[in-house]
Write a structure and sequence with these properties.
Number of helices: 9
Distance between the termini: 60 Å
Largest sheet: 7 strands, mixed
Membrane topology: Multi-pass membrane protein
Strand order of the largest sheet: 2-1-3-7-6-5-4
CATH architecture of the largest domain: 2-Layer Sandwich
Helix content: 55-70%
Main location: membrane
Protein name: Magnesium transporter CorA family protein
Strand content: 15-25%
CATH class of the largest domain: Alpha Beta
Number of strands: 7
CATH topology of the largest domain: Beta Polymerase, domain 2
Structural class: alpha+beta
Order of helices and strands: EEHEHHEEEEHHHHHH
Shape: rod-shaped
InterPro entries: CorA_cytoplasmic_dom, CorA_TM1_TM2, MgTranspt_CorA/ZnTranspt_ZntB
Number of domains: 2
Family: Belongs to the CorA metal ion transporter (MIT) (TC 1.A.35) family.
């Protein structure tokens, strides 16, 4: 599926025109084109290479999803690999979707694996800031990067809120809470690791785009890119602090479990001391002295029953306290 837009002199002129017409529109120096490909095929990439003269290594990176966030510079264009992310707070799972971006002086080309990237939200940002369309490709790229970085910030905030919820359950004493804390902690830690791999490289991507040598960001657009860069830095620093928080939660959980184990061992030792008293007495006398039912069958059955009942009572008591 392909989607197209044509801007001329800062004004939106056409949408959803055939990809084959792109080269005709680009003949005008005042025209700027956006082309979006979702689930592209080899034929789509062949058309891209023909219409825009893209380097085969950049096309290869766009075809083989799984690249790290990066910015590659070629003679006639740039290639950017970035990720849109989302967090399922209920389960603590992070979803990612890679998007490849070709940047030429007159065109912005986005390549998506699936519909996870809400491209309509990106288009809405462009339409909300129509007064900036006169800055061409720099503006279109800014709207896309701003959407992606805002998604990173939202995921970091969701992770932070989820970790705070785990912290609140650390000191619950029931066994279900303990297992849930351990499970969610490791799941959130895994999601945080994935998020760091997506967020941290974006600092270099945005920083490189602002370099004058690339001739991508004009002076009027520089403050907007600086704002995106500030958000990237904030998301990066936040992920670092969350990593420390996850480590603290895991260490605190282990400490709490160790303290609870010490308490249980102390209680078990107390019970053992209590039980040792009648055991020592009966063992010392060997029950050789007369007692109720001595020398009779019912006495033997009664003493056996008392032993069994006490043992069962102790087992039930320990089980309720989660000592067994």
């Amino acid at each position: 599926m392909a989607r197209t837009r044509l801007y001329r002199n800062g004004v939106l002129e056409a949408e959803d025109f055939p990809v084959e017409d792109v080269s005709d529109h680009l003949a005008d120096d005042q025209a700027v084109v956006w082309l979006d490909l979702c689930r592209p095929t080899q034929a789509d990439f062949d058309v891209l290479s023909e219409e825009f003269g893209l380097h085969h290594l950049a096309v290869e990176d766009a075809m083989n999803f799984g690249q790290r966030p990066k910015l590659d510079r070629y003679r006639t264009h740039l290639f950017i690999s970035a990720y849109a992310v989302g967090l399922d707070r209920a389960h603590g799972r992070l979803t990612t979707c890679e998007i490849g971006v070709f940047v030429t002086p007159q065109a912005l080309i986005t390549v998506r694996r699936d519909d996870t990237v809400d491209i309509e939200a990106v288009v809405a940002r462009w339409d909300e800031n129509a007064d900036l369309t006169k800055h061409g490709v720099a503006f279109l790229l800014y709207g896309l990067l701003d959407y992606l970085v805002d998604g990173h910030m939202a995921a970091v905030q969701e992770l932070d809120a989820s970790l705070e919820g785990v912290e609140g359950r650390l000191f619950d004493g029931d066994r279900v809470s303990i297992r849930d804390v351990q499970r969610r902690s490791f799941r959130l830690r895994r999601s945080l690791v994935v998020l760091r791999r997506v967020v941290l490289p974006m600092r270099e991507v945005v920083n490189a785009l602002m370099r004058p040598t690339l001739h991508v960001v004009s002076e009027p657009m520089l403050p907007y890119y600086q704002d995106v860069y500030d958000h990237v830095l904030r998301a990066s620093e936040w992920t670092e602090s969350l990593r420390d928080l996850v480590t603290t939660i895991l260490e605190t959980n282990l400490t709490i479990q160790g303290n609870r184990m010490n308490q249980i061992m102390k209680q078990l030792t107390s019970w053992a001391a209590i039980i040792a008293v009648p055991t020592a007495i009966t063992g010392f006398y060997g029950q050789n002295v007369p007692y109720p039912g001595f020398g009779k069958m019912w006495g033997f059955v009664a003493s056996t029953a008392v032993t069994v009942v006490i043992s069962v009572a102790l087992y039930v008591s320990f089980k309720r306290r989660d000592w067994l």
